[in-house]
Structures are given as C-alpha cells and as structure tokens.
Amino acid sequence: MKKMNKKEFKQCFSRRLAEKFAMEVSDASPSELYQTLGSLMTSAYSQDWRQTWQDYRDAEQKQSYYFSIEFLPGKMLKSNLLNMGWLETVEAGLLELGIQLDDLAEIEPDMALGNGGLGRLASCFMDSIASTGLPGNGNGIRYEYGLFKQRFVDNYQVELPDEWLQKGNLWEVRKESKAVNVRLGGNVYLSSDEMGNLTPHYQDGMVVRAVPYDTGMVGYQNNIVNTMRLWSVEIPAEEEGNYRSVEARRTVEDLTSVLYPDDSNEAGRRLRLSQEYFFVSAGVQSILRYYKELKQPIDKISQYVAIHINDTHPAMCVAEFMRLLIDEENVSWERAWNLTQKVMSYTNHTIMAEALEKWSIPMMKSVCPRIYQIIEEIDRRFVAEMTGVQSFDLIQRTRIIQNDQVHMAHLAIIGSHSTNGVAKLHSDLLKSVVLHDFYELYPARFNNKTNGIAMRRWTQLANPSMSKVLDETIGKTWRKTPGDLRLLLNYENDDQVLNNLAAAKLTNKKRLAAYIQENCGVEVNPHAIFDVQIKRLHAYKRQLLNLLHIIKLYLELKENPDLPIEPRVFIFGAKAAPSYHYAKSIIKVINETASLINNDDSIHNKLKIVFLENYNVSLAERIIPAADVSEQISLASKEASGTSNMKLMLNGAVTIATLDGANVEIRDAVGDDNIAIFGLTEEEVYQYYENKTYHAAAIYEQDNVVRRVIDTLIDGTIPNIHSEGQEIFDSLIKYNDEYFVLRDFEAYCIAQMSIDKAYKYQRRWLQISLRNIANAGRFSSDHTVQRYAEDIWQIEPVFAHKDDRGVTKH
Ligand code: GPU
C-alpha cells in the first residue's frame, strides 16, 4: 500500500475533491468529503486487492470460502484506514483542512447485513483472515435492506426499514462479468442413457441472475486485500419478456431484498429457503468456474478449495456441490461424494432446538427440486451404508429426511469432514447431548473452535484512550500481537498505570454519558458503575434477571434512600425480533421501569436505567469502552459462546456471569478472583430437565423478596405495563419459568453485591480490571481463524509463498 505523508495526503485529497465534485474543501459537505476520502482509499488499496488475488492464483494457493447468510461489518471507514496504516496521517491531515475525521465517519451507514453474534463473528473472521494473510473469502447476500432500525415509541419497540444503500456504497464493486444464473422452482425429470447415466431435464421454474458485489477485506498493515462477495438478484436480460408485471418483477427482486430479522429462529418461509439456495448456488458455481480456469483435474479440487458452512443456512452447499459435479462435470456419485466431504466443513452456533433448521419436503421440492432429489439420494445411501453397522434407531435419528422434513444440520454433518462448536462447553455439549448420535458415528469429525474478536476494532478504533495508555505502558507490540497484552500484568501494582487506566475509562464514560444525555435525555453520573448488557433480546439471555435485580434495588432504596450502595447506571442495548412478542414485552417493561426510576428523585440518583435505541456495531463501539460491568447471565448451556463478553473484558469491564459459553474460558483466563460467577451450572440445568423437579411457583411462594419483586409486574408499581407485566409474570409463575430466572435470582443478587463491594475498593477494582485486559489476548479472532486454517481448511498464509525474507512483492 502506498504510504503517504500528511502533506501528500492533503494534496491528493484536495485534488480528488476537485475532480469528483469540482469543489473546494471549504464548500464541500461532510457527505462529499466522506465520498472523496473513500474513493481515495479504494483506489489506493485496489492495487493490492488485484495483487493479492494474483498471488493466490500464481501460487495455486488453496483458498477457503466462508458461506454465511449474515455479515455484520459495521462501518468500514476507520477500520480500513487503520488497516491501511493511514489512520493517523489522515486524521491529522484532515484536521489541518478543518475537518474532523469523526464527522465523516458519521456519514457512513452501519452495514448491518446480520442480526447479532453470528454475523458479527463472520465479519471479525473476515478482518482476521486478511490480517493473518490467509487466502480466505466471504460469500453471502447483498440485502437491499439490512437489519431494521429500532425506535422506541411509547416505550415500545418499533421497526423502521434500514435503507443503507440509498446513498450508494463506497466499498463495493459490482462484477457484472462474474454473474451466474440460478434456477429456482419448476420441475425436474431424470432420463437415463444406455450406460445408466442420469441427465436432469428442467421444466418451468425461473432462472434469475446472481450478480456479485465484491468488497475488499483489507488486512492489518500487510498489503493483503481479500474479498467478501455478496450476491444480488437481477432479472436476466434474456428473460425480461417474462417479467412485465410489477408483481412478477417483485417476486424476483424480493430474493435479496431483506435480511430476516429473526435471530436463531427459523424463519420458516419459502422466501428464506430461496435466499439460502440463491447464495449457495451462486457461490458454489463461481468457485467451480474459477477452479476450472486453473486447469486442474476435478479430482484435485479438495486440494484447492475449502467451503465453510456457517451454521446450517448454507448447508445446501453439500447438495449444490454434488449437483455441479455429477450433472455438469460428469463425475460419478462416489467420487463426487468423496470430494464433497473433503471440501465441506460446518460450524454449529446453538443448541437451542427451535433454531435447528428443518424444511418440509414439499417446500424444498418446490424451491429447488434437483437439490431435493440429491438430498434424497444422500439420505438413501446414508441409510444403506449404516444398515447392519449401526442400530436401526440410531440410523433413524441421524438420517437427513425424517417425518417429511429435511434436517439441515444432519445434511451438513454427513456431507462434511468437520463439525465444530464455538466454545469449549458448547462443543462438549454437542458431543455429549445435542449431536451425540453423530458423535457416535463420526467421533473424529468433532472439534472445538472457541470464537474470537477482531481486537483492532475493539481496542484501537473503539478505545483510543485505553490504547494510548497501553502503548505508554507496555509498548506497541500488542497492536499486532494481542497476546502481548499480558505484559500489563507486570503493572498490576503500579498506581500510576492503574490511575491512567482509570482516567481512560472515565474519559470513555463521559463520552457515553454525553451520548445518553443527547439521545435519551437522561443525565447520568460518570462516576457511577456503568453496568452493561448488550446483545439480542432473548428469553435465554435473561435480560429479565437483570431487570428483576434492578427492581429489587429500587424497592430497597425506596425503603432506605441512604442504602450504602454505589451509584449504578444500568445500560441496555438490544433488538427483539419483530415477531418475538415476549421479547418485545421485556423491552416495554424495562423502558417503563426506566421512566419510573429515572424520574424518582427520592432515590438520590443512585440508580439509573438507560435503554439505548438501535443497538448496532457502532453503538457497541461507544458503549463497550465505557463499561465497568459486563452482564453475561444466560442460563447455563444456552449461550453457545457469546462474543460481547470478550469485547467487554478486553476493555476492562469486570464480568458477572453464569458458567455458560465462553464465560467458562474467560473465568479460566482471569481466575476466580477477577470475575463474579453465579448460578446453576450446565449439569444442574440438565438434572432439572431430567428430574422435572423445578417449581418456580414454590420459590415465589416461599421467598418474600422474590415475591415482592415479581409482584411489581402486576400490582401497578410500574405503570403502563398492564398486559406486558402480566405476560412476564405468567411466564415465570404459570408456565414455570423456562429459563430458571427465579432459581438463579438469589445467587445473582449475591454476585451483584460482591460487585458493589469490589467497586468500593477502587484500587482493587482497577487491578481486577487490568487483569481482564491483560488476559483478553487469547480471544483474538486472529488466533481463532488460524486454528480453522490449520485444523479444518488446511490453508496457509500467503506469506509462506513469498520470498524467503517474507517480504511481499508489492
Ligand atoms: N448465534 Br444459531 C446468532 O447470533 N444467531 C444465530 O442464528 C445462531 C447463533 C450466536 C450465538 O447465540 C452466540 O452464542 C455465539 O457467540 C454467536 O452465534 C457466534 O458463534
């Protein structure tokens, strides 16, 4: 990448502005300035982008393709500047032109083609794959509308469309020449020649054009630029005649119109299945097209290509790859199957039964009939192969087609060589419970890859004040090698360092306080504990447990306004799926409780509740550096991993957590004294399931504190929640509290008291915070993707193929 000094940058910038808009800096709007800067950047890295691709091709590098129905990159301006090595120069240069870089960053819409953890993980991986020099690509859908914008009206969640493409997208490049056709619907018949070879014949249905839009994934100061390819649907020119009516066009355009806003809930809609097949088929076709350009025999394809199935949404990759090999490349079933299993790998992201994707046979037959035929044949052969070797029952439980449904996870596991979970506990549960039958069949396929986070975004970009303290204390190597954060442990008794970290935290808290004041009209004390729960709104994540504890504190303060507790600001950020009634009721109740508490002067500002609207990646970047406490309180066994837990510890927040998902590994990293663990263990939860001995109503009756708190949901203490309060009350008492909120309540309150106590001893608190930062390096997604590369994809960094000194050729 071309390095520029400040003077050169200013010249280039002014010249580009004049070329693009025929303007002077002083006349340009932030939007025009943003576009100018963006175009300067993309033309600067496009050289490297081309070169990276050429290097992979020349070296005949094996490449991986990460298929994901969600990507959640957030804004890219500053992260690209950072990775290009331009950030400081540009920031300073712009300032001399009278421009604040942050004002330009404001212009960029948050790219939100994902719902939450799963999509954000995919984007952290994209950053890390490029930054570690790995030849890996993303493959997904270019949704016209991203995740809805959340507004609160009368304290209810209201969803507005996210028209993120309205002003264009600087970072993408439309690749008309790489478009492919995808067939959907209709019927298919097989004919057989004298050799018994089957040929499919298609009837009716539609052919749509999949056009790729490529976005450069800029590696961290290593001149590598990989590709995230997102597909958009169009009507093929030759078919225009068939799509004269508005409705007919609409059925096609709808395909890549909206991201399904259901997080880990199967959308259950024909359109969703069509979306899945659309991006799977387009992606696999384009991979095969590229492979054929290499002029290698088809039997070697597994030495060149690895396809990763991110959760089950792209599981049809298995069948589509088979289809292309047998129908288009005339490969025999046996050879094709062998190659498919070698190429494919799969990650499971949840144990929640309702999220395990299944499709009805009629639905699948009508969306992608040939794919269904192939799946039927995979299933038939699976049963035949296992019969006589495994028990009848085991075969019935593991086959792909059961009760008129296609089980996508079964397809992904049977059709691949690797199945991984996303945290140690989660991967163990897959083996012992959720996918136990498959573990019996294929023990060697199972492995763990604990999630990770793109450290650079969550420190250098989001938290410059802490980053500066780190530089001054331990030098700058942590910026490239996050493991070096451990050097900080040498300073745990250094008051100067502790105070510097505290000052950085306070700066961030003041900044967030100003944002809260401006956006919610609530004044918060930056010296109060900032207690943060940010994640999708889900019953299993138990925002309700957090709320009930807040209500308990409130009732206590009402009785005794001088209660010696540290002032706290409870901060929530969460979107609920628009169709998830219960989750929306929780939002309403939290918001109403906030109105009540925030306006009650009698408690002397000891408690505040802030529910920030429209939680997204950019907002996370504001909240996380300001957090003192990180709430990770899902019912043990339910959260596959969690990743906000990692981001928060990295920024010095102290975790209060159940032993769920990656929390277990965070505890192992920091030690019991530097985290507040509470609640049922995963084993205890499973015991309850087995004995069926949980009675929430009994806790309610016997525990006065619980009863007083729960009653506020229905006794008018909290205004305006007549139906929502009742709904939540019933979920706990009448429907026996599916997520053991009441069972964990007391333990949670005790853990919260220990947090309160620890915060009072500021020096000790700061030490705990420091140890959290110091031990967060192991959760770098650089590390995670390297494990995927070595264990699953068998791909190597491109540097390995560069000259001996490791110098890149660019
Ligand atoms: N996750 Br399945 C999602 O965000 N969406 C989904 O549809 C499914 C899982 C999350 C898990 O809930 C979370 O625990 C995990 O950290 C994340 O995926 C990434 O693995």
UniProtKB/TrEMBL annotation:
Keywords: Allosteric enzyme, Carbohydrate metabolism, Glycosyltransferase, Pyridoxal phosphate, Transferase. PANTHER family: GLYCOGEN PHOSPHORYLASE (PTHR11468), GLYCOGEN PHOSPHORYLASE, LIVER FORM (PTHR11468:SF3). GO terms for molecular function: glycogen phosphorylase activity; pyridoxal phosphate binding. SUPFAM superfamilies: UDP-Glycosyltransferase/glycogen phosphorylase (SSF53756). PROSITE patterns: PHOSPHORYLASE. Its cofactor is pyridoxal 5'-phosphate. Signal peptide: none annotated. InterPro entries: Glycg_phsphrylas (IPR011833), Glyco_trans_35 (IPR000811), Pyridoxal_P_attach_site (IPR035090). Its EC number is 2.4.1.1. It comes from Enterococcus hermanniensis. Coiled coil: none annotated. It is an enzyme of class 2 (transferase). The modification N6-(pyridoxal phosphate)lysine is found at K647. Belongs to the glycogen phosphorylase family. Allosteric enzyme that catalyzes the rate-limiting step in glycogen catabolism, the phosphorolytic cleavage of glycogen to produce glucose-1-phosphate, and plays a central role in maintaining cellular and organismal glucose homeostasis. Phosphorylase is an important allosteric enzyme in carbohydrate metabolism. Enzymes from different sources differ in their regulatory mechanisms and in their natural substrates. However, all known phosphorylases share catalytic and structural properties. This is Alpha-1,4 glucan phosphorylase. GO terms for cellular component: cytoplasm. One of its GO terms (biological process) is glycogen catabolic process. Gene3D superfamilies: Glycogen Phosphorylase B. It catalyses: [(1->4)-alpha-D-glucosyl](n) + phosphate = [(1->4)-alpha-D-glucosyl](n-1) + alpha-D-glucose 1-phosphate.
